[in-house]
Amino acid sequence: MKRILLTALLMIVSLSLCFAQGQVEESQNLSLAVMQGPTGFSSAMIEGVDLVVYPSPNEAVSRLASGELDMACLPANTAMNLYSKGVKIKALAVVGEGMLSLVCSGSSPEDKTVYVPGAGGTPDHFAMLFCKDYTIERSVAAPAQLAQMIIAKKASYALLPEPFVTMILNSSKDAYIVRDMNDDWKALTGQSTYPMSILVASEKALQSRPVSVLDAAASYKASVEKVLSDPAQAGKRIEELGIMKAALAQAAIPNCRLVYVGASQAKEQIMSYCDVLLELAPQAIGSKRIDDGFFY
What we know:
single chain, alpha/beta, D-Maltodextrin-Binding Protein, domain 2, six-stranded mixed β-sheet, five-stranded mixed β-sheet, 11 strands, 46% helix
């Protein structure tokens, strides 16, 4: 009888410990990585996660691949590339849509050289697609430096994302937008825009803590709404997090096309982008078409 009671007691204690451990794990915040610059804007007002800001996607990519990160906001082609290379992630939502523009400094418009911030990024891809009458110059990698070159009229054209387009227009009375790349994209694909940033989660986090991931996604969506409704407050928070200076962020937020569109709802948009890149620059997305497993 004593042995039966002891066995029952041990089972109760064991179950209690397992339940307690589960509660502790579920109460711990998930880790979310975002990038400095406009990719990180939409996350600024998120709550209930451990937010980490990186200067570029590289560290977030390596930590996602090693299982150290639960979630990340990545450039769309980077997210697809990771998935194609076998990293176990799923797309939760598009959180940033097309915000590239071809800008002219107002000087020497006959000079058909367009600067893009480095090789292999989204501006470079769009220049290859839509600026075939221009010579593409990739020697300056920093978009902020390119913006200053346009403002100082040291370059005639640049293909840049927000907030740098707003920065140029607010700093130069002569600069103007030649083309919004959304217009070119719509003419090419029939889609009104293209995905710039995608929120992803590791399959490990989705399997072990699905409720926490969905809560974090809901908080991200609320963050997007807060950022758009109060750019001034969001700008302060963006600077506090080390994403970008408040003044630059605040002015550009209304033009940054921050959204929260569930991945399944944005599937057609994402696949159109994937198909264009697969033909134009296949290495950018891992040299193969993503499949349904990418979408949560």
